[in-house]
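Q:
My hope is that you can spare some time for a protein that puzzles me. I hope you can help me see how the letters and the tokens relate. Thank you; the sequence and its tokens follow:
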Amino acid sequence: MSPLRLLIGLTLALAPVLGQAQTRADSVGWFGRTDVRLFRAVNNHQRPALTRFVAPITVYSVYPAVLAPVGLLIYGAAKDDGHATDLGLLTGATELLTVGVTGAVKLTVRRPRPYQTLPDVHLPSGPATSFSFPSGHASTTFALATAITLDHPRPLQSTLLYGWAALTGLGRLYVGVHYPSDVLAGAALGIGSAALVHGLRGPLLRYRDRHTKPGSFLRPESPAPVELMPVQITGQRWTARVSPTPTGLAFSLGW
């Protein structure tokens, strides 16, 4: 089993556990004490330079998650790049599913924000709206990171994407608007949503193909392949020939 599949399986298994355990997070039980202790460890570590770095990232990180699908769709239509368009559709579906599930869980659990139940919480970016569990910023950023990684697995790219998502989640504790369990549950929901959409990639794209025309915005027409012809250059005592092959170009030189 690949590390990514193992991570997806663990997060999918962790999501319902966190959802059940968080109902005791504000109590005096072990889970609640640990959740609050970890929250305090991050939120109490306020530094002006750190705030200037972390606060904008964690507050505005949701915008790249929303704009990425739109940007991929525009790029795919402008460049007739079918792969970019497919990825834009799939990341868009992933984010819609993530936002929908996250919102439904928030309204079901209705967990107050940390600053609404705990004293002396630092809020360098001000209070947040809606409920606390799960973190919407964590779910959307981890959903985008997973969707792109599953479609285009590259170590450096995946490291940067998941690093950005992790920094966003940690920053939600720093600015005082989420507990650690909110962030973990949001990450699990985002990863799980991306894995589900990726598993349904074939049916989703076939549905798109049945309801759109080639050359449309959501289904750019791929350009026809360019046929390469053999090229031969002849000198007085030699002949050079370049011929296309299924794997590249073949070069021959005769005397």
